[in-house]
């Protein structure tokens, strides 16, 4: 009878530990999600930002989509 009672108590302890860790993980994920939800990745850059890529050649004429596709296949961009 004592070993059965001890087994039930140990099972309840493991269950409570598991539930506590699960809730901690769940609310941690919610907190991280809320932090990054308000982060605006696509805002215009501030200060002395430089545009990295322009869809023009050296002469100033725009690059066609076929040239861009061929560059993609050739360079593995």
Helix content: 55-70%
Structural class: mainly alpha
Distance between the termini: 70 Å
Tell me, what's the shape? Answer: elongated
Main β-sheet description = none
Low-confidence regions: none
Order of helical and strand elements: HH
- Mean pLDDT across all residues, rounded? 84
The radius of gyration over CA amounts to 29 Å
Number of strands: 0
**Total of DSSP H or I helical runs spanning 4+ residues:** 2
Strand content: under 5%
InterPro entries: DUF4227
Protein name: YqzK family protein
Transmembrane segments: 12-32
Organism: Halalkalibacter alkaliphilus
Task: Please provide a written account of the structure.
The chain is an all-alpha fold and 77 residues long. Helices cover 61% and strands 0% of the residues. It is built from two helices and no strands. The chain has helices spanning 2-37, 65-75. The chain is elongated and about 90 Å long. The chain starts with a helix and ends with a helix.
């Amino acid at each position: 009878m004592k070993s059965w009672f001890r087994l039930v108590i140990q099972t309840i302890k493991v269950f409570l530990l598991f539930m506590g860790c699960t809730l901690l993980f769940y609310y941690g994920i919610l907190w991280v999600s809320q932090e990054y939800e308000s982060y605006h990745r696509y805002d215009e850059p501030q200060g002395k930002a430089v545009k990295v890529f322009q869809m023009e050649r050296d002469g100033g004429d725009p690059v066609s989509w076929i040239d861009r596709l061929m560059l993609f296949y050739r360079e593995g961009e």
